[in-house]
Write a structure and sequence with these properties.
Layout: H1 3-20, H2 23-29, E1 30-37, E2 46-47, H3 50-57, E3 67-78, E4 81-93, E5 99-113, E6 116-125
Parallel strand pairs: 1-6
Antiparallel strand pairs: 1-2, 3-4, 4-5, 5-6
Helix pairs in contact: 1-2
GO molecular function, one term: calmodulin binding
Keywords: Kinase, Transferase
Domain Calcium/calmodulin-dependent protein kinase II association-domain: 7-126
């Protein structure tokens, strides 16, 4: 399997851990010093896992079906680092039980540490921003 395919599979697994609320899987894929720019950070660069852990600790309804799809992926390898950029489509049911979709632009930076890819940075924003 090529590094590109490995990184895309890792990114999809990371997104699935988020949707499923699987903190253990998410934590295993991330470097403890991960940094992010996300809408929830209100324009601030946030570092470390505590910010992310908060969202995993929120109570989730077990019957909500959510699907995440990576579209238009682009992978750039730079030695022991890689950038994976894509549009993330998320499908779910709204409060009325009607299917809805939303999109966001994501860039994830991975670093090879001791032969294993670790997620070290994410930048997520609404499309077109």
């Amino acid at each position: 399997m090529s590094d590109r395919d490995v990184l895309l599979n890792l990114t999809q697994s990371l997104l699935e851990s988020i949707v499923q609320g699987n903190w253990k899987a998410y934590e295993e894929m991330c470097d403890p010093s991960i940094s992010c720019f996300e809408p929830e950070a209100l324009g601030n660069l946030v570092e470390g896992m505590d910010f992310h852990r908060y969202y995993f600790d929120l109570e989730r309804s077990g019957d909500v079906k959510v699907q995440t799809t990576i579209t238009s992926p682009h992978v750039r390898l730079m030695g022991d680092a890689a950038i994976v950029s894509y549009i993330r489509l998320t499908q779910s049911l709204n409060a009325s039980g009607i299917p809805s979709s939303r999109a966001c632009e994501e860039t994830r930076v991975w670093e090879k540490q001791a032969g294993e890819w670790k997620h070290v940075h994410v930048h997520r924003s609404p499309p077109g921003n």
